[in-house]
Amino acid sequence: MKMKTVLLAALLASPAVLVAQTETPESDIDINEELNKVIMVVNGENMTVGHLLAYRITRQGMPLPQDPMQSQDVLINELFSSMLLAQEAARMGLDKQPQIIASIEVARQQTLRQAALDELISKQEISEEELKTAYDKQHGATEKNEYKTRHIL
After folding, report:
1. 75 and 82 Cβ atoms separated by less than 8 Å
2. Which has the closest alpha carbon to 49: 59, 34, 69, 60?
3. pLDDT band, very low/low/confident/very high, at 61 (cuts 50, 70, 90)
4. What is the DSSP-derived secondary structure letter of residue 18?
5. In Å, how far from its chain's centre is CA 23?
6. How far is CA 147 from CA 1, 64, 109, in A?
7. Angle 2-13/68-91 helices, nearest 10 degrees?
8. What is the DSSP secondary-structure string of 67-120?
9. Using CA atoms, how far apart are residues 65 and 25, in angstroms rounded to an integer?
10. Which of 29-38, 47-56, 137-146 has the highest mean pLDDT?
């Protein structure tokens, strides 16, 4: 159980820390399997590590506590509340309203757009030389003025 808790805390803290905080070698970890692990079931709907991680990434609001375990508890409670409210909205039939359907579709498209951009950007390899050339092209021709603080005051 302790290993599972540490793994969940590592996933929530940062995907890059995952391997550092587990005793399992990197080659033995199946990220998809870990992301699909069910944390809890809310009225028959699974809350997975993947849901929690996605919620953490898109979360807006108060900063999280520094302690990973407290942070995990805050995220789980917030996502639990969110799932309950979403289920209640669906029970009320709000998910059938045209404006809600459109909003959900727009959110889906934005998520897919961002995923596609992230994937394309991660595949781009820019050399130091190309970066310097682009910088010089954009900033090389600009006039460089030096100001002394006495001129500003």
Report:
1. no
2. 34
3. confident
4. T
5. 24
6. 61, 41, 47
7. 80
8. SHHHHHHHHHHHHHHHHHHHHHHHHTTGGGSHHHHHHHHHHHHHHHHHHHHHHH
9. 28
10. 47-56
Cβ density class 7-41: b for 16+ within 10 Å, e for less: bbbbbbbeeeebeeebeeeeeeeeeeebbeeebee
For the chain, the straight-line distance linking the first and the last C-alpha, in angstroms and rounded, comes to 63
The better pLDDT of the pair 20, 70 is held by 70
Q: Tokens 């010089």 appear where?
A: 136
The predicted structure's pLDDT at residue 107 = 94
pTM for this one? 0.60
Tell me how far apart the alpha carbons of residues 34 and 48 are, in angstroms, rounded to a whole number.
9
How many residues belong to the chain? 153
Q: What is the pLDDT of residues 88-100, one digit of tens each?
A: 999 999 999 999 9
Q: Would you say 33 and 2 are in contact if contact means Cβ atoms under 8 Å apart?
A: no
- Taking only the tens place, the pLDDT of each residue in 108-119 is 999 999 999 999
